[in-house]
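Hi everyone, sorry if this is the wrong subforum. Our group has a chain we'd like a structural model of before ordering constructs, and none of us has done structure prediction before. Sequence below.
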Amino acid sequence: MTTTSFLPRLKILVAMSFGVALTLSGCFSMPSLSNAVAQNQAQQPAQQQSQPTQQTQQPSPGAAVAYQYQFNAFYAAMWNFGWFGYKDANYQPGQGTVWQITSSRSSGRPITFGRAFLKVNTDTTQWWRLEITGSNAKDQLVYEFLVGPDMKVQKVGYKDPGSGRISEFVPDQSGQEGGPSQPTRQQLANYLVGTESVQVQAGTFAADHYSYADPQSGYKGDSWISKTVPGYMVKFTSTNSQNNVTSSGELVQIESGVTTLLGSY
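Answer:
Right subforum, don't worry. Here is the predicted structure as tokens:
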């Protein structure tokens, strides 16, 4: 694939990743999802409401749709930090990574985004986890999801931040494409600035610096990538001169021995 033919895909990736940055910076309301589940619980019989909070329950249709919408946005974020992503996640079972993301559109402390590869099952399906904590530490979403060999999400469990209840849903398979279609390093070679030493909260890494600018949209993004980091992303920055929105993120921690928080397996 030539650089010219790759540019339309790259612009789509830029648009996705910029939306992801806004999502992670608080443009979606986590409390509203909690309220939707709370309304569902209020409509349930008293006997059902008295069940233990850790027991998996089915949400109301409205709450399920809201959580699926939120999950889809964060699932895109899992693959597309900055404008740069890989289909190969570069994780080992039990490894996790934590990033902090800030945006000029959010106030308060940074958004914390955690991603972990939990387990490989005997049938080659995989359990993964996403954790998102908003500017208010109480606004935390935890998703654990089962991914098939075709990279399609088969099942999603989540913990409601308001009630602590665990529910699950099966996502619509028709709209899934089996994971992202990402550019290769060869395709992005023209955007490579060089290898730099980058210091973030998780440590200091030798990282490849990639930079991309689109004068038409006003977008400029820089990503620092290391093969030694699960998920590859060490740091990213993005700006948009047309709306003066900026965002940035950096690796905070690489975790080991990570396991389920929701009793998924």
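For your construct planning: The chain has four helices and twelve strands. Helices lie at 3-27, 30-42, 46-49, 61-79.
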